[in-house]
Write a structure and sequence with these properties.
Order of helices and strands: HHEHEHEEHEEHEEEHEEEEEEHEHHH
Radius of gyration: 32 Å
Strand content: 15-25%
Distance between the termini: 54 Å
Helix content: 40-55%
Structural class: alpha+beta
Shape: elongated
Number of helices: 11
């Protein structure tokens, strides 16, 4: 037995490249279904947890999936804006707490989320450095955003223009970083948080500029109602500071300002049912339960997993047949080698043992490669899910 093992091992080592390729192909083929199961299992667990932690979401009537992805994962989906007046009406109901979300702009590739301080309490987010939002133009960074870009409290980050060549668009806002959130392992790690007014400032619904009362050289005309219109020489501020913060003001009816969604936290099951009934009759807004929408999405995902697993099973079967053919051809090419061994006294049983051991060695190496791939998929599953979302 020891001699047969020695011969088998020597052959595998002598043809190490061929053996490694064969073992690697086998390990990859047999690990793929298990890696797929690990990735989908992790995705299901994380998606369900995020959805279950969010009781209800209100948004404009349309795609429920788009609304859920916007509110939970800060995706810029094709949603019609929701007037902030809806938020006021919800709060007047007193049967549920409501947290607004404004998701439209980005800063260095990270979504800018306009919200209120209650959002941090709701998600259990805590600061690892700095302090919370305290004035217009402040922002708090998720842990991943701060780490990847090397940003710290006291620094600044610019909002990104929606279009690179939008000369008539709003100015990028230079935001003051006041704090960094502790890692939470959620999409909150990859977002830049501002308050709603700062989000509207980025949108151009508010601005600050030179005092037209003091500098008459930049005045274009004075209207009858006392409104002063400045000319093109008026200096617009792209950063909020202690000196110029008083010059920032909003135009128009604030109750019509847009938000993307509202996270609703009903007091009890009765309030939840009443709210669902109220918005079921609305033609302009909709209320969704993320848990239900996510289960529907995951049901489709499981069906796709079954299809993919069937395809991978067929691939594995084909790979197994090809591997058997490779071994058969290899043994056939080595017929003279085995005949020589038989001539010097090696028994047929020993020769069969050598062949079996060669197959076993390749198989064991393939299993090890498969386990390594499985471990890698387990470790990278959270990052792959973030990248996919």
């Amino acid at each position: 037995m020891r001699a047969a093992l020695h011969l088998a091992a020597r052959y595998v080592l002598r043809h190490r490249l061929q053996s490694a390729l064969l073992a690697g192909a086998l390990g990859l083929v047999f690990a793929l279904p298990l890696c797929l199961r690990v990735l989908i299992s992790h995705a299901q667990q994380e998606l369900r947890a995020r959805a279950a932690a969010t009781p209800q979401i209100v948004g404009t009537r349309g795609s429920a999936l788009d609304l859920m992805m916007t509110a939970l994962y800060f995706k810029r989906e094709n949603l019609l804006p929701l007037p902030v007046g809806v938020l006021t009406e919800l709060r007047q109901n007193h049967s549920a707490a409501a947290i607004p979300l404004h998701v439209r702009f980005q800063a260095q590739g990270a979504p800018i989320v306009g919200t209120e301080l209650e959002y941090f309490t709701f998600r259990g987010l805590h600061l690892s450095a700095g302090k919370q939002l305290s004035r217009l133009g402040d922002c708090v960074l998720g842990a991943t955003v701060a780490k990847q870009r090397g940003l710290q409290p006291g620094g600044h980050v610019f909002s990104s223009p929606e279009q690179a060549f939008d000369m008539a668009g709003v100015y990028p806002l230079k935001m003051r970083i006041t704090g960094i959130l502790a890692p939470s392992g959620t999409p909150d790690d990859e977002a830049v948080f501002v308050d709603l007014k700062t989000a509207w400032l980025i949108e151009g619904r508010s601005h600050g500029h030179d005092d037209l009362q003091k500098d008459q050289s930049v005045v274009l005309k004075k209207e009858e109602d006392g409104n002063i219109v400045g000319n093109a020489a008026v200096r617009m501020f792209n950063e909020v500071t202690d000196k110029n913060i008083a010059s920032f003001h909003f135009h128009g009816d604030v109750s019509t300002y847009p938000i993307s969604a509202i996270i609703v936290l009903p007091q009890d099951a009765k309030a939840e049912a009443l709210l669902a009934g109220r918005y079921a009759r609305s033609k302009e807004q909709q209320l969704i339960r993320p848990r239900d929408e996510m289960e529907a999405l995951l049901t489709q995902l499981v069906r796709l997993e079954g299809f993919a697993a069937s395809a991978l099973l067929l691939t594995a079967t084909a790979a197994l047949l090809v591997t058997a053919l490779v071994f058969a051809l290899s043994f056939r090419l080595r017929a003279r080698e085995f005949a020589t061994l038989e001539d010097v006294g090696v028994s047929r049983v020993s020769l069969i043992t050598v062949k079996v051991l060669e197959v076993l060695i390749i198989g064991i190496v393939a299993v090890v490669i498969g386990l390594v791939l499985l471990q890698i998929s387990s470790l990278t599953a959270p990052h792959l899910l973030r990248w996919a979302l």
